[in-house]
Amino acid sequence: AKLLNVRLDTLQRKMVRAGMNDEASYDHILTAEWASLIAMEFGINPVVDDEAAFDIYPPAPAADSSTLPARPPVVTIMGHVDHGKTTLLDTLRSASVAKGEAGGITQHIGAFSVPVPGPDDDPKSERFITFLDTPGHAAFSAMRARGAGVTDIIVLVVAADDGIMPQTREVLELVKKEPDVGLVVAINKIDKAGADISKVEKALFAEGVQFESFGGDIPSVHVSGLTGQGLPQLVETISLIAELQDLRAERTGMVQGYVIESKIQKGLGAVATVLVSRGELTPGTHLIAGTAPGKVRLLTSPSGGPVKSVSPGTAAVVSGWKELPKAGDEVLSGSESEIKRAVANRLRKIEIETSLQDVEAINLVRREERERKEAEEEKDREETEKTVEKKDEKKGVEDYYQRGPGVGDVSESDVMRAKAAEGMVVAFSVKIPRPIEAMAASQGVQFLKSSVIYHLMDQVKERVIGLLPIKV
Ligand code: GDP
């Protein structure tokens, strides 16, 4: 009220009229939205400080992607516990080490790429498949929750000696909800005695899996993660599906990607495995992931070697973060100053959201307190009424006229007494405060009000006449 330079009751009346009933109480903390609305009611234009609200957003997808460069598919391996996901990934990962690379030991970084042998007529055209190397469901859910569909193909692993289990069904349910994600079924552990491939396939078919061999379009590959049997066929099948999906992405312009894993590493500080989805990530690039800013210092492959650049559909470990980004965070590039402003804005947003939650909690407590008080008052009032009613079985005009005269502004007790006597308040040359007026209205108590005594007398006379019996 002070800021708007109006009286408090004027402000409150405006607020109630604008539909802010709870908000119009004395002790309610207003949100910026409500405050702006009221300010506008008083003809003041609130200024939103949107310069500070600068943020970085991913570019819109290309209208025509058919001319963009191809990218490797991103594959997630899922399935029931103990059906062989880890073993399968380990075997595939060891195939990811390029021949001749020093050491040949691959580290777990959350993603790795496996080369796919090129077609016979062009054996040199090497392509890749990128496997997400994090516990399938967790990674997939984290990405989905943040709105990122990074997985192109799901490999559902089903142990040939065990068959359909609860998590197998979960994956099938999940695939149903993701029509753009391709599915390959890998019947695993075929080396094991007791493996019954056709039994498992029939059971899956009964669950609605339309296998190619039964006239559908879902491939089934028979593998052993342990012996490596069938893995070339698995890689080939994935690669065929990816070809049909025609996966392409910009290699120029802004970088967009997702944090697969992150940790603090001795000597390097905060590091994060980033899966690039568009653009080319190179050392020196300024990045933002959530509220963590960074400038790419080193890019490292799973075999620990430095990488010059990371293209869409592949991942590398990025060092140079000022803070630790979270798994699932979207990574975007920008200029140093853009990143700085975006971080400030995101931190401020979080702060505002947190304090808004606090405000809501405070307002709730206050409202409950008020309602409790009102209920108590209402009870008191009802009891007073009962007592008064007992005393005044017979009421004359005098009663109406005489009860409780006082001086000063009309008070709550004047209204209450008028109510108890089923009368009205006669206010001569005094003010009726707004809250009292509102209270009287809710109690059904009327006022006769004037600062000219004759007018008041006329009004009283009229009322008294109204009370007289009609002459027949
Ligand atoms: P996950 O829980 O799905 O990651 O399953 P694991 O990869 O940890 O495998 C569970 C158990 O099955 C381990 O003891 C593996 O050695 C074994 N296993 C996994 N794949 C195969 C396979 O192809 N053949 C055989 N015989 N055993 C396997």
TrEMBL record:
It comes from the Eukaryota. Coiled coil: none annotated. It comes from Hermanssonia centrifuga. GO terms for molecular function: GTP binding; GTPase activity; translation initiation factor activity. Residues 70-248 form the Tr-type G domain. Residues 369-401 have a biased composition (Basic and acidic residues). The chain holds residues 30 to 501 of 604 of the full protein. One of its GO terms (cellular component) is mitochondrion. Belongs to the TRAFAC class translation factor GTPase superfamily. Classic translation factor GTPase family. IF-2 subfamily. Keywords: GTP-binding, Initiation factor, Mitochondrion, Nucleotide-binding, Protein biosynthesis, Transit peptide. This is Translation initiation factor IF-2, mitochondrial. Residues 369-403 are annotated as: Disordered. It is found in: Mitochondrion.
